[in-house]
Amino acid sequence: MNASSNDSTVVSSPEFSRGTGHSIARMVEPGGTLAPLQLEERRLIHREESVRLQSDAFRNIRTRLLGLAGEGNFVTLVVPVSPRSGGSFVARNLAAAFAFDEARTSLLLDCNLRYPEQHRALGVEAGHGGLIDYLEHPSLGIERILYHTGIPRLRLIPAGKARENSSEYFSSSRMRTVLDSLRSRYHDRYVFLDGPAIKGSPDARILADLADFVVVVAGYGRDTPGAISTAVANFEPGKLAGVVFNQAP
């Protein structure tokens, strides 16, 4: 696995409160935590030397986002320029990089409703459904669709049942309310949206309205400079955190 940022300027993050919050103290993995070898099999970073290069790349992106944000948590949308550029790979590893910090928690939402993969990649059995199931039936309860991942301080909300017309869900007031609630409930929680490819779908632009920052993923050797420029132009300059060149599909 490999990823690198196109922006070589890294802004140091501000000092956050290092106290352990109640939400972090309660976060345990009922099935135990995944070992480094298990994480590598799932193409996930960890703290050991064997993936140090990849881990440092995602830590640099984390530092960039924290520097841009100032104080307070935020919502980050991760979207690929085109399908198979590795947007989902970058989204889950960026979420994992934030979860490295014992004073922060990560929540990953799979918003790629046509091609959801985060539950499979993370080995999660989404028996209670996911995001779309909750948006359609709020009585389900948000806690039932928050799944453990085997990674300390990282939770997943899978996409749920596949839908063709996803835009109506993302543009709904309920979706905005859900995100506001997930973000504001715990000050130490950082939310990551794994979005669909920018090319060929309006969903990425709709989701960008719900996010504080957008990270665009370009497939190294796959997406041309022209395609990347066209993709980046879809987002407000103030929200665009940068472009990540990724070698993993």
In brief:
The chain has ten helices and eight strands.
What does this protein look like?
It is globular, with a radius of gyration of 17 Å. It has helices spanning 22-25, 36-41, 52-69, 87-99, 118-121, 131-136, 167-170, 173-185, 203-208, 225-232, and strands spanning 3-5, 75-80, 105-110, 147-148, 154-157, 189-194, 213-219, 240-246. 33% of the residues lie in helices and 16% in strands. The chain has ten helices and eight strands. Residues 4-25 have low confidence and may be disordered.
According to DSSP, the number of beta strands is 8
> How many individual helices?
10
Helix fraction bin: 25-40%
The structure class reads: alpha/beta
CATH class, named: Alpha Beta
Mean pLDDT reading: 86
CATH topology: Rossmann fold
Q: Could you tell me the radius of gyration in angstroms?
A: 17 Å
Name the CATH homologous superfamily.
Answer: P-loop containing nucleotide triphosphate hydrolases
Widest sheet: strand ordering: 1-8-7-2-6-3-5-4
**How many independent structural domains?**
1
The second-level CATH architecture is 3-Layer(aba) Sandwich
Ends apart, CA distance between termini: 9 Å
CA-based shape: globular
Order of helices and strands: EHHHEHEHHEEHHEHEHE
Biggest beta sheet attributes? 8 strands, mixed
